[in-house]
Amino acid sequence: MTHYRISEAARLLGVSADTVRRWVESGSLTAGRDEAGRQVIPGVDLARWAKELAHAPEDPTGAASSARNRFVGLVTNIVADTVMAQVELQCGPFRVVSLMSSEAVRDLGLEVGSTAVAVVKATTVIVEAERHSR
């Protein structure tokens, strides 16, 4: 079974090691000790906690959609010319960039600071994992 040290768990969750220690102390996260006596968190428990923390903001459009890859975020930058625009959204810890027509930006009323939803449709998703020595 995979285990993560406090610092590794903090890095994966995007929080400080102190925050992870507080979660362990409060019983929100289960921790044990490795052979060296360091606190470690079972990977399955860390995965469960990560899912609990990952509450997406409510979709402001209220639209019904079959798309599952919807990321609610804030527009953080727009670079537009007369024909095309690059729109950046900050969706939680993720930066999503979309290229669209400048007309679409105007029609949607997008501006820096407004809320928007990025809907991602991809035919390929590549997953990479860290190599572990055996």
Ordered list of secondary-structure elements with their pairings:
Elements: E1 3-5, H1 6-13, H2 17-26, E2 32-33, E3 39-42, H3 43-53, E4 70-80, E5 84-91, E6 94-101, H4 102-108, E7 115-119
Antiparallel strand pairs: 1-3, 2-3, 4-5, 4-7, 5-6
Helix pairs in contact: 1-2
How would you explain this protein's 3D organization?
- It is built from 4 helices and 7 strands; from the N terminus they run βααββαβββαβ.
- It is of the alpha+beta class and 134 residues long.
- A 4-stranded antiparallel sheet has the order 6-5-4-7. The chain has a 3-stranded antiparallel sheet with strand order 1-3-2.
- β4 (70-80) and β5 form a beta hairpin.
- It starts with a strand and ends in a 15-residue tail after the last strand.
- The mean pLDDT is 86.
